Amino acid sequence: MFTKMKNIDTAFRYVRGFTMLVIAGCIIISCYAVYKSFQTVSLMQDKVYILANGKALEAYASERKDNIAVEARDHVKTFHKFFFTLDPDDKVIKTNITKALYLADDSAKRIYDDLKENNFYSGIISGNISQSIQIDSISIDIREYPYRFRCYARQNIIRTTSILKRNLLTEGALRNVSRSDNNPHGFLIERFNTIENKDLSAETRK
Prior knowledge:
The chain is built from 5 helices and 7 strands; from the N terminus they run αββααααβββββ. The chain is of the alpha+beta class. It has 2 domains: 1-47; 61-204, Roll (Nuclear Transport Factor 2, Chain: A), CATH 3.10.450. The strands form 2 sheets. Strands 3, 4, 5, 6 and 7 form a 5-stranded antiparallel beta sheet that branches. Strands 1-2 form a two-stranded antiparallel sheet. The longest helix has 45 residues, at 2-46. This is Conjugal transfer protein.
């Protein structure tokens, strides 16, 4: 009688232990499944689909700190393209300068006002001059805020009878502002200054 009771008690303990083990396993598997589900949802939220030329392209969202140097260089490049690309057309000049001034503070506006007062843009139009810029490199120091930059570039100034090549070295600082359609990178150029802008070569047009 006592032996049977002992065997029943032992079997009960085994069954109870096995049941607890199964329950613990189910809890662990459930927690892991929930964790992986949240992880998958988080990864999916980081995906961005861009429609370009009728095709859906997949991109990944990232923190701003991961792309500061890249976005800063592109901001500086975009500003220089707009500010220094000129054609003998008043509407084109105003359009480009307006776009550039959205990307910089009044330090760039003062340079524009000085050039305008000295009839620089009028000379571009009356002389049928085109000016383009080629960016060689842009260095960004992101160790301190606001971020300092230097831009190394070359200018091609095409006149009726000649083509003049000039070097261009500028510097300034970048501070964070809100992103907008006019300023997609969310930076503003401050203390913009031209360090060097001298002739490199000139050739006669045939």
